[in-house]
Amino acid sequence: MAATEGADFCFGLGDFANSGKRSSLATIARLSGSIGMPFYPTPRNHDLDESPVTGYYAEAFSDRINYTFRQKGWQFVVIDTTDGVVWEHPMIGKCTLAWLDRVLPILDVQAPTVLATHFPLGAEFEWCPRHADEVLARFAGLNLRAVFSGHFHGQTVLRRGDCELITCAGVARGRANHDGTAGKGYWVCDGSATGKLTRTFVPFTGG
Fold it and tell me: Engineered SS bond to 204: which of 92, 114, 122, 171, CB 3.0-4.6 Å?
């Protein structure tokens, strides 16, 4: 990923630590600091196997729980959708919902916006959070163009008006794709066109 020409940043939306080990999260934090671009993660259920979101994950990524950033005219919102170690239909925490209610009203309503989560938002996704529609409804007044999510290992693109809900095959070494496909990989996205995102799937050939 670090070799991607012209890349401005990298999202990390899948499980970093297969069993939530402090050493695993620390390793990801160390490696992400060497890729030559900002790294924007979000907590996920396997990262919490040995501690809550305020534990080992926060040690590794202290300012990466619920947050926003801007890049070249685009507006990005990254939220914690975990419910402890629950992996199937979690309840998004009250802290995340309260944070959204505070922050979304002060964002730019015209800027093209991307939401990043671990659990996919949309009833068609397996293991979707039980009140995902409530989260998406909070973005009704914003120019939401895409929601990128992890958890489901497979390429999925659903449409909600002008917004796409997207998952990817991922690069998990020890876990198969949930959609039955064999290929591992990640998306490289281009937002240089005003208000539009294009995606290219890049196969992962590492060990």
Answer: 171
Q: Domains of the chain: which residue ranges?
A: 10-203
Residue 56: how many other CB atoms lie within 10 Å: 22
List, as own/partner pairs, every contact residues 30-38 make where C-beta atoms lie below 8 angstroms and the sequence separation is at least 24, other chains included. 34/2, 35/1, 35/2, 35/10, 36/2, 37/2, 37/7, 37/8, 37/9, 37/10, 38/8, 38/9, 38/10, 38/69
3-class DSSP assignment, residue 12: strand
Residue 48, pLDDT score:
67
pLDDT above 80: residue 176: no
**Cβ(143)–Cβ(163) below 8 Å:** no
Whether residue 17 is predicted with pLDDT greater than 70 in this model: the reply is: yes
State the pTM of this model: 0.92
At 86, the amino acid letter reads V
CATH architecture, domain 10-203: 4-Layer Sandwich (3.60)
Residues 6+ apart with CB under 8 A from 154: 167, 168, 169, 177, 178, 179, 180, 181
pLDDT tier for residue 198 given thresholds of 50, 70 and 90: very high
pLDDT, residue 19, reads 74
Cβ contact 116:96 at 8 Å: no
Mean pLDDT of 4-28: 84
How many other C-beta atoms can be found within 10 angstroms of the C-beta atom of residue 195? 14
Q: Nearest-CA neighbor of 84 among 113, 132, 44, 119?
A: 44
